């Protein structure tokens, strides 16, 4: 408690506390002082006036000052605290309340008030004269300073008036470290309290109690204010810390959103992924693309080989192709083959609503990549960052981002070892500046796989599951024209799931066909109750298509016929081209039209003109589309000649009607051909329809058996 500040001499603090300990020690006094001050408050007040006067000797063994006389204590205190024992003309208006002094002090300073203890001890009573003097001098000590709490408006004014007087007064009466305390409004508070007591006419006998009560109330209020202040201070500190952390975060990263997104965006870009496990082996059906990228792999493996000859490799390679064709996989394979780090970033990550964020991400990405060259940076969906630099409210800062990308691409030398691979589904949407030489100057097309590619991809994914030996991936490949690698992977996966659901041990053709139809036409609708009449109509309609396909020379071979409802259809016949058709002949187009007509012709022949259904509408759509293209696009109409008619709306009415006329003739002829075939093969038509009603689905072989007039094995 005495170590209030550094100005306090250690010699002063230690002896005084020892002194009090010594006073308190039972050995040192002949009278027991075991009762605590608080327990004996009243007794203390009383005994103060009737202190017995025996044993004037102090036993200060603890101080190493044994057998000290009272007069010597004076000297001791005087030497330790010079001036404190001297008589001063300080008139204290304050009447000491020993009842509450202790609790004042403890509440306020959190430690024992040794002076109060001193006053309440029997030693004080025994040697009252000397100790009283010490204690009254010590009234200047913080012990009584809590009196400042008696604040009134008047005391405040008084205080202002008397500040200078008190300053002078305190300067020569107290040690310097106490001055701070003394300067606080002791005098004015004492005055105001005195005044209060006078105005309230408090009798002399109750004045002590009054002061005590007042002081206790004040202390409680003080403690409350202290608490509030503390919590306020704490809140301010927390807010301050948060503010500092926030500012730091902002400085480190201009936008905090960057940090939040790092796990999905920037971090994945900045943390390279080593692609050792992905090689060209994993990418099937895109042989040309692989060949073109092979030289990039060579460059990454051995950049010096290229620099020696002075050749420049493209900085950027643009992979162009529909979704799911393996562009990302190819880029990974390039990094994997060359065994270099792979930085992945998606263009949409750079597309930000906030100014500068996209640009700063690009900067970060390139900085990291350059530090780890040779490496591959892959930017997926390049069109979303490198699209034409138009200002749009949706992408307000795209211009800045793309400029940054251009700057970064210009910023490193071609042979620095960083290869940027961009991927896009819409190369037309890219900014021209991005595809000029020196940037993405090499384009590699990644098309949808052809039948050979699809077979390879199917085999690759089939090898990852258990499949029956009877499975022919080529048949599935033939029936999945236009499927991308990702779709084929999904097909195999769905077949595996179906086999698992059906409790089969391995995947068979049936599951593969099932999942193919599901992807092409939507899920089966087994729960749909279709009445026999509708089933019969569907069976004849579908077998009508099948008969035309079977007996028309240029039609595609039949793969399957079914009357199982699926998606929006009640049944369908699927045809398989032997190969992907790059070109189609006039005969093939006419055959396709005839097959489409087969459904309606069958309905009409079997059920009569009045019972034809709406079920043929999509067949007509298909046939009309082919006929229209033959006339307006393919130059296959004698009457309209070898000419294209792109915008039929702008044509003269005569030409328009001529086109319509030609289309109509083509369709009518097709209808007649189909009718002829079905009339000719009425028996086969009937057999096939009945077989479909019995078996629901027939594959190519079964259809052939039925049409050859043989009996089907009972399944
Ligand atoms: N040619 C392929 N060979 C093997 N697997 C392929 C092939 N193409 C696609 N896949 C499979 O499909 C998944 C998706 O392909 P990927 O992400 O590479 O396509 P993408 O062309 O990058 O598509 P997007 O344009 O939508 O980003 C691959 O992870 C892979 O499993
Ligand atoms: Zn049909």
From TrEMBL:
Assigned GO CC terms: mitochondrial inner membrane
Compartments (UniProt record): Mitochondrion membrane
GO molecular function, one term: ATP binding
Location of the AAA+ ATPase domain: 313-450
InterPro entries linked: AAA+_ATPase, AAA_lid_3, ATPase_AAA_core, ATPase_AAA_CS, FtsH, P-loop_NTPase, Peptidase_M41, Peptidase_M41-like
Reaction catalyzed: ATP + H2O = ADP + phosphate + H(+)
Family: In the N-terminal section; belongs to the AAA ATPase family.
Protein name: ATP-dependent zinc metalloprotease YME1L1
Species this chain originates from: Tursiops truncatus
Encoding gene (name): YME1L1
């Amino acid at each position: 408690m005495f170590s209030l500040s550094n100005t306090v001499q250690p010699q002063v603090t230690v002896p005084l506390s020892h002194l009090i300990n010594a006073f308190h020690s039972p050995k040192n006094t002949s009278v027991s002082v075991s009762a605590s001050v608080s327990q004996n408050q009243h007794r203390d007040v009383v005994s103060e006036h009737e202190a017995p006067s025996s044993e004037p000797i102090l036993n200060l063994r603890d101080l190493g000052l044994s057998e000290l006389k009272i007069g010597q204590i004076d000297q001791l205190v005087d030497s330790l605290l010079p001036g404190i024992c001297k008589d001063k003309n300080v008139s204290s208006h304050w009447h000491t309340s020993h009842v509450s002094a202790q609790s004042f002090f403890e509440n306020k300073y959190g430690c024992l008030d040794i002076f109060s203890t001193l006053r309440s001890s029997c030693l004080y009573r025994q040697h009252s004269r000397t100790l009283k003097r010490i204690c009254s001098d010590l009234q200047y000590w913080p012990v009584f300073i809590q009196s400042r709490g008696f604040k009134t408006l008047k005391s405040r004014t008084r205080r202002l008036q008397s500040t200078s007087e008190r300053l002078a007064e305190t300067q020569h009466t107290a040690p310097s470290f106490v001055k701070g305390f003394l300067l606080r409004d002791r005098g004015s508070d004492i005055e105001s309290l005195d005044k209060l007591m006078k105005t309230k006419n408090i009798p002399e006998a109750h004045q002590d109690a009054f002061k005590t009560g007042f002081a206790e109330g004040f202390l409680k209020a003080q403690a409350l204010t202290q608490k509030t202040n503390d919590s306020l201070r704490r809140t301010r500190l927390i807010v301050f810390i948060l503010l500092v952390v926030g500012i730091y975060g902002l400085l480190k990263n201009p936008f905090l959103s960057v940090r939040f997104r790092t796990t999905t965006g920037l971090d994945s870009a900045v943390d390279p992924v080593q692609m050792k496990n992905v090689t060209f082996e994993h990418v099937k059906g895109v042989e040309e693309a692989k060949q073109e990228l092979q030289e990039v792999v060579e460059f990454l493996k051995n950049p010096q080989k290229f620099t020696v000859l002075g050749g420049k490799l493209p900085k950027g390679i643009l992979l162009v192709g529909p979704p799911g064709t393996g562009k990302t996989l190819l880029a990974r394979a390039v990094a994997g083959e060359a065994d270099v780090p792979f930085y992945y970033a998606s263009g949409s990550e750079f597309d930000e609503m906030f100014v500068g964020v996209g640009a700063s991400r690009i900067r970060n990405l390139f900085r990291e990549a350059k530090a780890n060259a040779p490496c591959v940076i892959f930017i997926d969906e390049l069109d979303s960052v490198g699209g034409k630099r138009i200002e749009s409210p949706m992408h307000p800062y795209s211009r800045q981002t793309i400029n940054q990308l251009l700057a970064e691409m210009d910023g490193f030398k071609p042979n620095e070892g960083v290869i940027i691979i961009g991927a896009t589904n819409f190369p037309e949407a890219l900014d021209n500046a991005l595809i000029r030489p020196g940037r993405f100057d090499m384009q590699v097309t990644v098309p949808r796989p052809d039948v050979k590619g699809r077979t390879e991809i199917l085999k690759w994914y089939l090898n990852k599951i258990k499949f029956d030996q009877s499975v022919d991936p080529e048949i599935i490949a033939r029936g999945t024209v236009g499927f991308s690698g990702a779709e084929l992977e999904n097909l195999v996966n769905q077949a595996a799931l179906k086999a698992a659901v059906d409790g089969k041990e391995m995947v068979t053709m049936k599951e593969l066909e099932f999942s193919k139809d599901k992807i092409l036409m939507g899920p089966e609708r087994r729960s749909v109750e279709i009445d026999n009449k509708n089933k019969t109509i569907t069976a004849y309609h579908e077998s009508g298509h099948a008969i035309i396909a079977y007996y028309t020379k240029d039609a595609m071979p039949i793969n399957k016929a079914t009357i199982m409802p699926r998606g929006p259809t009640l049944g369908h016949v699927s045809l398989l081209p032997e190969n992907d058709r790059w070109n189609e002949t006039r005969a093939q187009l006419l055959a396709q039209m005839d097959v489409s007509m087969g459904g309606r012709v069958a309905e009409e022949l079997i059920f009569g003109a009045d019972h034809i259904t709406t079920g043929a509408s999509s067949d007509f759509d298909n046939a009309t589309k082919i006929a229209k293209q033959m006339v307006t696009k393919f130059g296959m109409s004698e009457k309209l000649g070898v000419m294209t008619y792109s915008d039929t709306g702008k044509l003269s009415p005569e030409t328009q009607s001529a086109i319509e006329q030609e289309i109509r003739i083509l369709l009518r002829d097709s209808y007649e051909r189909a009718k002829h075939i079905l009339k000719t093969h009425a028996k086969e038509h009937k057999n096939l329809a009945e077989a479909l009603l019995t078996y629901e689905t027939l594959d190519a072989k079964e259809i052939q058996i039925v049409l050859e007039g043989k009996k089907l094995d009972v399944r």
